[in-house]
Amino acid sequence: MQTTIQQDATHQLPQAVEPRNPGMELDLDWVQAVQANTSAIERRAKTLPGRRSVKKEHQAAWLLKAISLIDLTTLSGDDTEGRVKRLCAKAKQPVREELLETLGMSGLTTGAICVYHDMIETAVTALDGTGIPVAAVSTGFPAGLSPFHLRVEEIRQSVAAGAAEIDIVITRRHVLQGNWQALYDEMKAFREACGDAHVKAILATGELGTLRNVYKASLVCMMAGADFIKTSTGKESVNATLPVSLVMIRAIRDYYDRTGYRVGYKPAGGISKAKDALVYLSLIKDELGDRWLQPDLFRFGASSLLGDIERQLEHRVTGKYSAGHRHAIG
Ligand SMILES: O=C[C@H](O)COP(=O)(O)O
């Protein structure tokens, strides 16, 4: 179904989100019964880029919407306060004002910014008064192999430093060994340590072996109270993909059908092209519906996507690509 800019590409200011998924008891029968028809999923994923239902004349509005859904990220060993301050300035004003005016919009910001624990205070100060939340990666990101009590303590310290959202990493071993109780208990402890902060469970799907494992891990994390499930840290050799996204989105749908709780989705890692962002938005719209196209239920985890979206928007308005840009939206 096609929709107009006015109908659902409108920008909503980011808001601090209360935890909305209280979780449920671990239902092992449900987890064990999960099947995944891998070839059907691969087939459907292949056709997605060609089928995306965003009309060309609405693409600028959808790209602006995509900006409002980005967790603008820097997660590098050489991060500095200066880099994080620049990132926050970009989050506050992601595209130049004249361009935004030409496109008939004002007040656009990214959905959040995402940093390591050490950079939380810098980011919170830089974003003071904007309403843009700071997300922190926690629990021994990216591998999640530090002692359990330190991972829980890291969450507490990140919340105390002002992070409104915590991106945790799960122990991949629990999934690979089918130890669903251990995964549930771990996620539940992380959820509790977050208090009122919003918790996103990073599954590191590229390290989970099978799509069936991805599906099961998604369910277990949601049962334990994850507010979002997120594909990847950006550090695995395989990060966000369309087949993995389909599986996770369908797990979200199944969980909603069973419990009535909406869990958000965050594809992350390697999403750097505007045209890919449009495919993701279209996928969400088709599979979960418009409610999931708001910042409290969808985010892109991305460090370089914003740059490509900006270039595409500039091209639409001025007819020129900026230097080095060669990727046209299909
Ligand atoms: O969570 C966000 C990811 O680390 C970002 O990955 P990226 O640098 O490939 O965009």
Automatic annotation (TrEMBL):
Alphabetical list of Gene3D superfamilies matching this protein: Aldolase class I (3.20.20.70)
Pfam families recorded: DeoC (PF01791)
Enzyme Commission (EC) number: 4.1.2.4
One example GO MF annotation: deoxyribose-phosphate aldolase activity
Subcellular location: Cytoplasmic granule
Assigned keywords, A-Z: Cytoplasm, Lyase, Schiff base
Record has Lyase as a keyword: yes
Pathway: Carbohydrate degradation; 2-deoxy-D-ribose 1-phosphate degradation; D-glyceraldehyde 3-phosphate and acetaldehyde from 2-deoxy-alpha-D-ribose 1-phosphate: step 2/2
Catalyzed reaction equations: 2-deoxy-D-ribose 5-phosphate = D-glyceraldehyde 3-phosphate + acetaldehyde
GO BP: carbohydrate catabolic process; deoxyribonucleotide catabolic process
Domain of life: Bacteria
Protein's recorded name: Deoxyribose-phosphate aldolase
Organism: Cognatishimia activa
